[in-house]
């Protein structure tokens, strides 16, 4: 619904989408840009040119097939484990919070945190290289000890921060 | 507060009736377990619910009414409201659904409030509560019933205390209400109910047969175990004079350790009582499956060994291999006796040590040649024991390697002792050189005045030992390296045995084929809702990660792990102490 121009800490553009399913149930989805074909072509061509140059000197065909294999496997691993397509935060009143990230290959990782385990949701700041970034995180507590914070869970793991004014 | 109703998916199309379930205390939620259809007699319903409560231990109540009017049936609004008077409850839920529409409509009728609050405020509150703030969470009943939420509580928790987590209570409620699911609407009883069984699910006849056969099998195994313990005990008692060496030997040989470990497992498996609790069940399953896989692999290996005369080829290979090793060792010693790597050795000591070790090798080879006609027979009968499992084959191999390289072990001990003596002598004489002495009482170095002749002899001995040091050090180095190679090989074998013993195959199989049985948590999905109806969520089970499965369900073994850290090991090597790098973790005091 609100689509201002947000960027993440590396400068890539991301978009934020808020849906309100009910008065106590809301979903926030942050999507990052898809894999660009230009980059894929550049990487593949450079790897293959290098392999061809090595083949030219050594005359060993195993280098070529090795390069093809490396490119394919590298691409598959990248879209399955590294490239995040979108992350979503579903807040259900009096039930809990669900955080899910889905990767470019379709794999989804979901975690649900119950209301009894949540102490608070805060914006925390951290020093990352030369800048200070602000990230949203959930403070968890053990239900038997309501005063102690047992762990801090950052939301939106793919280091996204909104560099302009958030909604 | 938002009211959460956990509604089973199998009841989405059930005919109108009464909702039976449980209110979860502490959280504002209710779990619907089944729907009892019209017509019914209220007295019989109450009796049935009390009976189910006694059998299952779950506090069942009638939660409210469910209406799904068929075409042509007029709505039974007034009839449904009258039902709430027959079953007096704190809160009465009236859930209704129209055919063709997805959303449910829920009205909550609160009793006992009319007397307390003033009427104006009351109507406003009731309107608000009736309009929104109800969540329907749809769950798949059979999967939730069979699933186990992790992390499970360790030990035996008191069944009366409720866990504070709402989801855990929901899972426990459904799991414990198994007696409620025995009768459904196709049975000829006074009450017809709908739950997951009404969807019609076939049970596997093989599983049922296995369950029936398991009790006599357990009795057979426990009888065999009793026989085995009687044999081993009686054989030990009749050789009571050699009790100590036998015990020592059996604790060193990995085959004996493996046998005792498997006997423990058989004892766990052979108890005819069903497993109490989830952890015991998984433990039994893991032990059984890994034992069967082990035996299967062993039989495969055995069939390979006995086919095509492989045993004869192995036996024929063994003799030349032992000869080859002996020849290599002899060549090594000849090299050491010359000028190894350009170093100049002390000739006399070199010759003595070299000749001593050469004679040792000669003795060893003669004994091996003496045994050579029996090798094939031994291998043949030893190969029969491989049918007990692949772990036995690996332990046997490790023991055989230990026996065959016994001479390397002896050389290492001789070299290490000599070197150790030399180092201690050198350090003590070095202290004399500087005019100091080791005080045994105070465990420290003190200064001491020596006589001239003491100093003279001490300096002489020190010089001799110092110049003999390179020779001894070289022999020690060579034999320590050989010993470390053998230890490494044995270590690899032990690690693989440990891996086969401890890997939870049953848990992994369950995670791959029935991922809903081992749950790490749940995940929610918002179902498309229509305006004016309550919010509908679908609750699915989030299965455990594979790494967590392995970590949680590893069978504890007598695993061998390094005794010393790297620094301590290097220090021991430097000083010349004998090293035993692997230490067996004993599970009970031997």
From TrEMBL, chain A:
Entry keyword annotation includes Membrane: yes
Pathway given in the UniProt record: Glycolipid biosynthesis; glycosylphosphatidylinositol-anchor biosynthesis
Under the heading PANTHER family, the entry gives:
PHOSPHATIDYLINOSITOL N-ACETYLGLUCOSAMINYLTRANSFERASE SUBUNIT H
This one is known as: Phosphatidylinositol glycan anchor biosynthesis, class H
GO terms of biological process kind? GPI anchor biosynthetic process
Record keyword Cell membrane present: no
Q: Which residues cross the membrane?
A: 40-57, 63-82
Q: What region holds the Phosphatidylinositol N-acetylglucosaminyltransferase subunit H conserved domain?
A: 88-157
Gene it is expressed from? PIGH
Q: Which UniProt keywords apply?
A: Membrane, Transmembrane, Transmembrane helix
Q: Which InterPro entries match?
A: PIG-H, PIGH-H_dom
One Pfam family name is PIG-H
Query: Its family?
Result: Belongs to the PIGH family.
| GO CC entries | glycosylphosphatidylinositol-N-acetylglucosaminyltransferase (GPI-GnT) complex
Give the superkingdom in one word.
Answer: Eukaryota
From TrEMBL, chain B:
- The answer to whether keyword RNA-binding applies is no
Q: Which domain of life is it from?
A: Eukaryota
Listed GO biological process terms? GPI anchor biosynthetic process
> One Pfam annotation, family name?
Gpi1
Keyword vocabulary terms for this entry? Membrane, Transmembrane, Transmembrane helix
What PANTHER family would the database entry show?
PHOSPHATIDYLINOSITOL N-ACETYLGLUCOSAMINYLTRANSFERASE SUBUNIT Q, PHOSPHATIDYLINOSITOL N-ACETYLGLUCOSAMINYLTRANSFERASE SUBUNIT Q-RELATED
Instruction: From the record, give the transmembrane residue ranges.
Output: 220-244, 287-306, 352-371, 378-405, 411-433, 454-478, 484-507
**A single GO CC term, please?**
membrane
The protein depicted here goes by the name Phosphatidylinositol glycan anchor biosynthesis, class Q
């Amino acid at each position: 619904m609100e689509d201002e121009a947000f960027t993440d800490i590396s400068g890539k553009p991301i978009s934020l989408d808020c849906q309100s399913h009910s008065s106590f149930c809301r979903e926030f989805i942050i999507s990052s840009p898809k894999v660009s074909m230009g980059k894929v072509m550049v990487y593949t061509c450079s790897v293959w040119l290098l392999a061809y140059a090595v083949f030219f000197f050594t005359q060993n065909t195993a280098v070529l097939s090795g390069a093809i294999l490396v490119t394919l496997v590298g691409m598959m691993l990248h879209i399955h484990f590294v490239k995040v397509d979108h992350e979503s935060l579903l807040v259900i009143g009096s039930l809990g919070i669900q955080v899910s990230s889905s990767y470019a290959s379709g794999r989804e990782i979901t975690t649900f945190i119950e209301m009894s385990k949540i102490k608070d949701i805060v914006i925390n700041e951290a020093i990352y290289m030369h800048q200070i970034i602000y990230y949203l995180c959930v403070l968890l507590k053990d239900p038997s000890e309501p005063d102690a914070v047992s762990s801090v869970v950052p939301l939106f793991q793919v280091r996204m921060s909104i560099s302009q004014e958030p909604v | 507060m938002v009211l959460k109703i956990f509604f089973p998916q199998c009841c989405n199309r059930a005919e109108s009736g009464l909702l039976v379930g449980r209110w979860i205390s502490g959280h504002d939620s209710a779990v619907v377990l089944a729907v009892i259809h019209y017509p019914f007699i209220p007295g019989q319903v109450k009796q049935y619910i009390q009976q189910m409560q006694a059998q299952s231990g779950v506090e069942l109540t009638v939660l409210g009414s469910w209406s799904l009017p068929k075409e042509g049936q007029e709505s039974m609004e007034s009839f449904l409201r009258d039902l709430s008077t027959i079953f007096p409850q704190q809160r009465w839920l009236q859930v209704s659904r129209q055919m063709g529409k997805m959303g449910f409509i829920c009205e909550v009728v609160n009793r006992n409030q009319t007397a307390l609050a003033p009427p104006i405020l009351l109507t406003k509150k009731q309107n608000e509560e009736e309009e929104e703030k109800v969540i329907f969470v749809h769950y798949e009943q059979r999967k939730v019933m069979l699933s186990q939420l992790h992390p499970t509580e360790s030990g035996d928790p008191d069944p009366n205390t409720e866990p504070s987590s709402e989801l855990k209570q929901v899972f426990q409620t459904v799991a414990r209400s198994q007696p409620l699911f025995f009768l459904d609407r196709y049975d000829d009883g006074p009450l017809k109910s709908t739950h997951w069984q009404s969807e019609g699910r076939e049970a596997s006849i093989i599983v049922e047969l296995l369950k029936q056969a398991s009790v006599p099998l357990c009795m057979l195994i426990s009888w065999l175990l009793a026989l085995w313990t009687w044999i081993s005990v009686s054989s030990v008692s009749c050789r009571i004079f050699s009790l100590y060496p036998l015990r020592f030997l059996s604790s060193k040989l990995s085959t004996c350790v493996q046998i005792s470990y498997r006997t423990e497992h058989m004892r766990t498996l052979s108890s005819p009582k069903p497993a109490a609790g989830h952890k015991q069940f998984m433990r039994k399953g893991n032990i059984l499956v890994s034992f069967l896989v082990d035996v299967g692999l062993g039989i495969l290996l055995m069939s390979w060994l006995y086919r095509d005369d492989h045993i004869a080829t192995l036996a024929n290979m063994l003799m030349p291999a032992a000869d080859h090793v002996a020849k290599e060792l002899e060549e090594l010693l000849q090299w050491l006796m010359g000028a190894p790597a350009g170093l100049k050795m002390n000739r006399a000591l070199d010759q003595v040590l070299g000749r001593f070790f050469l004679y040792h090798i000669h003795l060893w080879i003669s004994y091996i040649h003496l045994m050579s006609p029996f090798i094939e027979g031994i291998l043949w009968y030893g190969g029969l024991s491989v049918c007990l499992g692949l772990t036995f084959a690996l332990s046997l191999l490790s023991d055989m390697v230990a026996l065959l390289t016994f001479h390397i072990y002896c050389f290492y001990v001789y070299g290490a002792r000599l070197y150790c003596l030399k180092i201690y002598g050198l350090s003590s004489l070095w202290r004399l050189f500087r005019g100091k002495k080791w005080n045994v009482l105070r465990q420290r170095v003190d200064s001491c005045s020596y006589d001239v002749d003491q100093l003279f002899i001490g300096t002489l001995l020190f010089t001799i030992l110092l110049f003999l040091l390179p020779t001894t050090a070289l022999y020690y180095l060579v034999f320590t390296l050989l010993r470390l190679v053998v230890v490494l090989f044995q270590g690899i074998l032990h690690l693989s045995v440990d891996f086969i013993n401890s890997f939870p195959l049953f848990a992994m199989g369950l995670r791959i084929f029935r991922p809903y049985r081992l749950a790490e948590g749940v995940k929610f999905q918002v179902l498309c809702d229509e305006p004016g109806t309550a919010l509908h969520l679908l609750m699915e089970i989030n299965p455990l990660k594979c790494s967590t499965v392995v970590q949680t369900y590893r069978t504890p073994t007598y695993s061998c792990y390094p005794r010393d850290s790297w620094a301590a090991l290097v220090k021991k090597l430097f000083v010349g102490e004998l090293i035993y790098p692997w230490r067996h973790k004993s599970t009970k005091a031997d």
